[in-house]
Amino acid sequence: MRVWPSVRGGAVSLLAAIAFSAPVTSAAQAPDFDKVEIKTTKVGDNLYLLEGQGGTIGALAGPDGVFLVDSQFAPLTDKIVAAIRKITDRPIRFLVNTHLHGDHTGGNENFAKLGVALISRDELRARLAQPPKGTPPAPATLPVLTYQGGLTVHMNGEEARLIAVPAAHTDGDTMVKFVKADVIMTGDFYRSVGYPNIDRANGGTLKGMLEGLAAVVAQAGPSTKIVPGHGPIVDRNAVSSHRDMMIALRDRVAALIKEGKSQQDVIAAKPATDYDARVAQPGTTGDRFLGQLYAELTGAK
């Protein structure tokens, strides 16, 4: 593994990530993990995607072992490992988190206890170490290798570039570019379903989101498969269109603010209506994102 000059490795005891996902408001809304099945899709010579409950997992597998992107929820670890074992019997060696939310980090502790080395941005590790409710992290919960700027993992004939995406969905986002496979995994600063989510409570910003999307387009070629945190695989044109939508809605909200509209007024004006049919998921609207845009543009806390 080659570490870029700006990277520093953590010399800490093995820890795994605490689950920081969107809160579940009732037991009825909690996923039934017993019913979750792991779907495996091959997207490169030795690169696979695992879909279950939560963010899409990447698995680079081969004679050097397995390198994972994200871990989904803790109750799914056994199923995820079983899916990997259908691909290879080589050990799982490394796991990088694209950001801190629990549907991407919830299984970290389980993997760490299997001897997997966890990797993240410095900022992500810091947030996992200090959860908002003050509950101290359990043993074996934090990444042991952290980086700033970028880090490259060389395994199985592949070059996996971990690229920092500052202050986008959160302040600890990472995109992963698999050079030979021509695949980019974005985590949740880009989703191909639903409206964007700027997690301002965890350091996300509109500016960072737009810059991150521009970076994906710049990193991608015409045939690059772009794997979002959630949703189907797309190409760079879809990411560019998503960014254009964010800019258009930003400008609409800014115009309403200039007219003296409150956040409630902005949402009531429904400036995202023309995007709903192609962006909104069933049962959702753009209201949350409009509220985030309002807060970003007015500097609200």
Report on this structure.
This protein is α/β, with parallel strands linked by helices. It has two domains: 27-234, Ribonuclease Z/Hydroxyacylglutathione hydrolase-like (Metallo-beta-lactamase, Chain A), CATH 3.60.15.10; 237-301. 30% of the residues lie in helices and 21% in strands. The strands form two sheets. It has a seven-stranded mixed beta sheet with strand order 1-2-3-4-5-6-7. Helix 1 links the parallel strand 4 and strand 5 (92-96). The longest helix has 23 residues, at 236-258. The protein is globular and about 60 Å long.
Secondary structure elements and pairings:
Elements: E1 39-42, E2 47-51, E3 57-62, E4 65-69, H1 77-85, E5 92-96, H2 102-105, H3 108-113, E6 117-121, H4 122-129, E7 145-147, E8 150-155, E9 158-165, E10 173-178, E11 183-187, H5 206-219, E12 225-228, H6 236-258, H7 263-268, H8 273-279, H9 287-298
Parallel strand pairs: 4-5, 5-6, 6-7, 11-12
Antiparallel strand pairs: 1-2, 2-3, 3-4, 8-9, 9-10, 10-11
Helix pairs in contact: 5-6, 6-9
CATH H-level homologous superfamily name of the largest domain: Ribonuclease Z/Hydroxyacylglutathione hydrolase-like
Distance between the termini: 40 Å
Shape: globular
**Whole-number mean pLDDT:** 89
Indicate the CATH class of the largest domain.
Alpha Beta
What labels describe this entry?
301 residues, alpha/beta, seven-stranded mixed sheet, five-stranded mixed sheet, globular, disordered N terminus
